[in-house]
Protein 1
Amino acid sequence: MSASKLNPLQPRTPLPSQVVKDDEGALVAAAKAGDINAFETLVGRYERKIFRLAQNITQNKEDAEDVMQEAFLKSYQHLGEFQGNSRFYTWLVRIAVNQALMKLRKRRPNQVSLDEEVDTGEDTMPREVEDWGPSPEERYKQAELGGILSSTIAELEPPFRIVFQLRDIEELSTEETAEALGLSVPAVKSRLLRARLKLRQKLNRYFRQGENS
Amino acid sequence: MNCKSIVKEISNYLEEALDPSLKTSIEKHLENCEDCRVVVDTTRQTIQIFCNSEPAPLPEDTRVRLRDALFKHLNKLRTGPRV
């Protein structure tokens, strides 16, 4: 086969990883000792991410605000219990996810059950197979791309959306995601696969080659 | 290895969580199947785009309400009676 510009066989760039700020541990230690300014720095560092997480899960701005407030407050109240075995941010995400799921279940009690069996076998086979052409990050302005991503992820059903959010946006490990959601590791893996394939399919309409932005 | 098996293993392939013989079989298939190459590549891009995406700035009113709520509680905790 002739050389294609797509070459998944090339040594791949590792999936991006969020930069861990070196001073996170020091800030947490200071906050534990009662330094409110240190805690405020942590809030300022993570508020946007926690708000996006809460919004992606609850799909409601008011609920997302409540979730963010409750998550930061709870994290401060329970800071003494944080052992430092994981990143502070991972711990904070887990608190925020619990709050968000409670909101979601309260709002839609009959629609949100994360632990029920979901069919992950149907419609996973890609239907549209088209190269995406130029990098989407180059084709769209950041705010525009952000809008595309948030509306696309909103189209996923909660069991898939939440697993994808934790695993591929917040970068929790499969095991951490399973623990945070009370799911088995195989359940996380199968939902994640389906979420990734569905999102790929949905993004295809924006990013396929020849599609004007 | 057929296209359906490739799709089932995409996550493990992208996360480099496959045993070497399965990885080799997948790569052999990808060498000869352009459709699967496209699916693998665009799935990888999907993950990367979301992972790289920067969250939007907080709306100013949201930010103000967060600060107000949080620090009202924190001050209460700091100055209130210890339990």
Protein 2
Amino acid sequence: MIYYKKNCKKRLTNDSSATIMNKQIYMLYVHVRGKGILEAEMENIKQKPVGLLILRLFPPETAWKLLIQILSVFSALLVGAVVIKLIGGSPGAAYRALLVGSMGNLKAVMETLVKATPLIFTGLSFAYAAKAGLINIGAEGQLYMGGFLATLVGSSFGWMPLIIHLPITLLAGFIGGGLWGLIIGWLKVKFGANEIITTVMFNYVAIYFISYLVTGPMIEPPGTYPQSRPITDTAILPRFFQGSRLHWGFIVALLCVFLFWFFFRKLKVGYESRVVGSNFEAAKYAGMKPAKVMILIMFIAGGMGGLAGANEILGIQGKLFQGFSPGYGFDGIAVALVGMNSPFGIILGGILFGALRSGGNMMQMIAKVPISTIYIIQSLVIIFVIAGQMITLENRRKLLAIFRRNNGSE
Amino acid sequence: MEVSNTILQIISSFIEADLRVAAPILIAAIGLLYMEKAGVVNIGAEGTMLIGALAGSIGAYLFQNPWMGALVAALAGGLVGVMFAYLVVTVKANQIVAGIAINILALGGTTTVNRIFFGLNASSSDIPSFTKVAIPLLSEIPVIGSLFNQLGLAYLAILMVPFTYYLMKKTTIGLSIRSVGEHPESADTAGINVFRIRYGTIIIGSMIIGVAGAYLSVGLLSFFSENMVSGRGYIALASVIFGKWNAFGVLGATLLFGFGDALQIRMQAIGSAIPYQFLLMLPYLLTVAAWSGFVGKAVAPKASGKPYFKG
């Protein structure tokens, strides 16, 4: 929060139109977030000599959130163990197989990263929107539309060298998903159509659209199978090693995570998005253009979903067909939730759910626990995390009181 | 004469197909309507239906009676409702995310339980299913007679429409539900227990949605298959919005969507030039259009999706 203050001053003093508003926005921002007291408290802590490096790195609020988050995930795994027991399996054996299958050796780790890659993209998709106060349930549809446009570009223009063709194809994927998200933003801003319902509806529209394409206009000649022509070699995401499916898409995902951090921490428009997200009225009052910001955010969020699709097609599948995503779009919501919409958290969340997916086979083979059980565990993680976050909210003030006593400040 | 007879027959079978396809969506939509009116958006209807479908087939198998299947499905749906209500009313978690969690839970849970309970070689002959009930006289009317030759549950679904309409518009309890959905603070001031109303509508609504699932597994088919709901829960949600949160509107919406679905199956069969996928998209596109105000603005209850913080 201290950072906001500095950031706010630095950014907005550069912008002549908003200079006078500068102080008010900040006050208003603090006010609407209801964090005013915590703010002051943090200032106090930091001024003290015992203000400790650890407190600077992990302010109490973050540390507390982190603790709750970890506890939530573990509680979910614990209840998951009970479920495994109930269906007649051995929880110990199942979790051991899950761990070995996802992290046991280098090959397994790489396969986990393969599964984590699309989840990081869809997690970013949800997080971009969430930071701006929007709920994007549409990553699944955006993923399909991104996959569609990437396939369109990736299966033609084979004469281009890889260094040009691949980036263009990825960009096509971004734009495909981005435009699908942009429509959502436009409907919201222009007609007041709540994005939750429109994104849910657009998922199915996209899925049927892809079904139409791969059985009709985009079908691979002679038309035996409902799938597109293969992606040309110049647009395939290269793999790192022989014998593993891990491809350059993972690096692209990490790059996107960095850009996500950069967008919200370093760019003025990112800062504005966060203000729009926390209070629409305050943003308007401060001379920002919430409508523009929302449309942009939905474009980027959709683009991230689109990249997930492009990444799956260019890195793994090699062609477009119906149902090429096993629900990566919806899993992205869980990833962002577990990762608390933070860059590092999204990577960890992606790896967690990637590990569940990649270790599931081993769990089924060795521990004889059906692979579908991982969906149960996954839903439990979501349930416990959202419950835990509400506890955090309730306890924020209580924690603050304890902290105040311990530090002896008023 | 010959030709007109065939056409009449086609129309007749079409009407029958429309209602048959629309009925489970109608039941689920009516269930959703209860909680939507109280300001709760439940994306988990899809998952609740799936759980209802599995519970229905298990109940029908164990008791060798389809009605017991529907009852078990209602109970299972009610349990899901209790969980959802606890999450969104007591814990005040985000309704959309909680709904998504229920969908994922249902997908994993039903697949797992189905494999354990029925194994991989479940035979549909072991599960009794609903049979059609022809209403005397009415079912003999030419052309539209097929409307009166449906599964017992379909009649119940139709009857629930005026009942729900009456309950919401004319009774005190309906007024309480609506006020909780529009303005929970004022409802609370007026002495209405917001939590109780939301818990009640979510649980009862989820029970009804569970029955809608049973309609699929012991009605349309007589076995459970993985992910057999395939989007009907979302169509039900779409119907509630397209029907503008009105029981009769919901009936119209489900019949329209059912019509599109029945048409789509026909078109696939005869190899029509219009791709069937566009008909499948139609419910969703129409709902977005209504939601955005292109075809008569759909206005949600004001407190939709918001948890209520007392005091």
